[in-house]
Amino acid sequence: METTLIDRLAVLPAVGTDYRGYDVSPDGSMLAFQWYRDGDWQVFLKELPNGEPRRVGDLSDACCCPRFSRDGKSLYFACDDRGSECFDIWRVDLATGACENLLPDTPDLSPLPDFDVSPDGATIAMSAFDGSAYHVAVMPAAPSPEARDVRFLTRNEYMESSPSWSPDGRRLAFGAATEGQDTAAFLLHLEDGALRVVGGSPRFFAGPPRWSPDGRMLAFAGGPFEHPAIGIYDVAGGVVSWVWQTERDAHAPAWSPDGRSLTFLADHDAETGLFWIDLTSGELREVSIGPGNHYQPSFHPDGTSLFCLLSAPDHPADLYRIDLADGSHTRLTESVPEDLRDFPFKSGRHVHFTSWDHLAEVPGLLVEPEKPTGAGVVIIHGGPTWHHANEWDALRQAFVAAGVTVLHPNYRGSDGYGRRWQLANRWLMGQGEALDCVAAHDELVRQGCDPRRIAVTGRSWGGFLTMAMLTQFPDLWACGVAGVPFFDFIDAQLDPDIREDLRWWDRQNTGDIEKDRAKLEYYSPINHLDRVQAPLLMLGGALDPRCPPRQIGEVAEKLRARGIECEFFIYPDEGHEISGMEHRVDYERRTVDFILRHVGVAAE
Fold it and tell me: What does the pLDDT look like over 334-345, one tens digit per residue?
C-alpha cells in the first residue's frame, strides 16, 4: 500500500503532554521523559546537555509519568495495561538498569499515573479508585502483589488527584474535583489526619497545588476570578496572596529552587505562553519559545534555566531548555524527521463566529490551505473541558495539505477562555455546544467552502458531538467520522465498564438520569439515528474505559438497515487513545480517506 502523508504524520515522535511528561534528576544531569517513538509510548533517559536518548526497559505496554527518586538512584514510571488505564508502577535501578513492577497482579487496580515518591524514598503516594471514588493512597516503595500494601488515607465524596509530598515528608498536598467543575487544593497532615482545603466552590476554585522548596507555601492556579490567577497559600497562616491575575487563564505554576520566583503558563486565544515572575520585585517576563502551546514548565535544579514542552503548528511536542539570563532556548528532543522539516505545515488563526442561537460569539481556530479546493472539515475537540490550540495536529495538517479548510470550534464548555465559557454547557450538554459547532459549518461557508462539501469529525466528546451534528442537523454534512465516541447520556452513567470518576463527572455535569431523563434522552444521538443521512465512519478501542465501544455495532446495524453508508472498526488491545503504530496509522488513514472521498478531494 502506498505511504501517504497522514501515514507519516500519524506516527511522528512526540513527548507526552498529559499528566507528567518528564522529570529532571536532582543533580540536573539527566532528563527522563515519555516519548512516542517507533510507534509506542515509552520512557527515555537523556544525559544533559547533548546525550542521545535511550529507552528504559523493554515493556510492550505504554509507559508514562517518569519520576526520579530524591537521591537520584532510581527512576519510577507508570505502565498502562493495554490501554485499560489500570496502571502499574515500575522502578528502575539507574546503576544496573534492573526493572521491577511494584504492583504486580493488580488487573483491576486503576491508580492515576501521576504518583509521587516520598523524600526518603520509602513511600509512594497516588490517587486510586477504592470502590466509591478516587482517593489518595500510599504504599511502600517495594513490590506489593495484588495491592495488598496499598492503604487509603482519605474517605470523602470528592475525586482526588495528583498527590505530592511536602519537602519534610510529613504532609501531602493534592487536588480534587468537588462539585461540577469546581476544584480544590487539599493539605493532609499525615500524623493526625488533619485536612485543610483551599477553594472548592463556584466562588473560589483551586487547581493542583505545588510545594515551595521550604514547604512553607503552596502555589496554585484559581481564585474568585473569571480567569484563573496564580495564588500562594501560606501554610502556617492559612492566607492566600495573589501573584498574577489578568484577563488570561493561568495554570501550571512551578517554583524555582530558591523559592524566589515562579514559572507558569497563560492562555491567550488558541495559544499558551510561558512566563517567569520574580516574587520579590514583581518583575514579569514572557519567555515563550514561539507560537503554539507550552506545557509543564519546571526549573533546572540550579535555577538558571527552565524546561518545558512546546507543541507548535509545525512540530509535535518537544522538550526545550530556556536560559533565563538571555531567553535563548535549546531543543532537547527532535520529533520531525529531516525530510519533513521543510514541509509547509500551516499555522492557524484565531477567529470568532456567531452561534446558531445568537447567544454567543464562538472562538475557534481556522487553518487554511495554500490552494483551497472548496471542501472543509469541522474538527471538534474532546473533553469537553479542553480546547483546540494552534499546535501540532496530524489530521489538521493532512487535510490542509489536500486543500481542505479546517475549522476547530472551541464551543461552550471549552477551557482557556474564562470560567463563564467553561461552565456554559453545564446541565446543557448537547444543546448550546452543538449550536456552536454547527455554526462552524456556516463560518466555513463564509470562508468560501461549498456548503455541500463540509464534513465533521471528532474524538471522545468530539465523537459525541459529531453524532449530535449528524442527528440534529442531518442536511448539512457531507459525512462524519466519530472517533472513540459515546452516544447515550443515560448509558454513560450506568455502564460499569466506564471509570467511576468519569461517571461522577457525568452525574455532576449532564444531569440526573431520573429527574432529567427526558432531557438526557432527547439529546442522546442514539435515540435519533432515524435522522442520520450522511455517510458515517466510527472507530473505537476494545479496552476503552472512557467510551467503551459496545454501542458502535448497534448504531451501525440500525443505520445500515436504513440504507445509510456506515463503516466501523474496533481496534483490539487499544484503549481510549489508539496508540499502537499500525492501529494509529490505520485510524488516521481511515479518517482522512473517508472524509476526502466524501468531500470530493484526492489525497495528498
Answer: 999 999 999 999
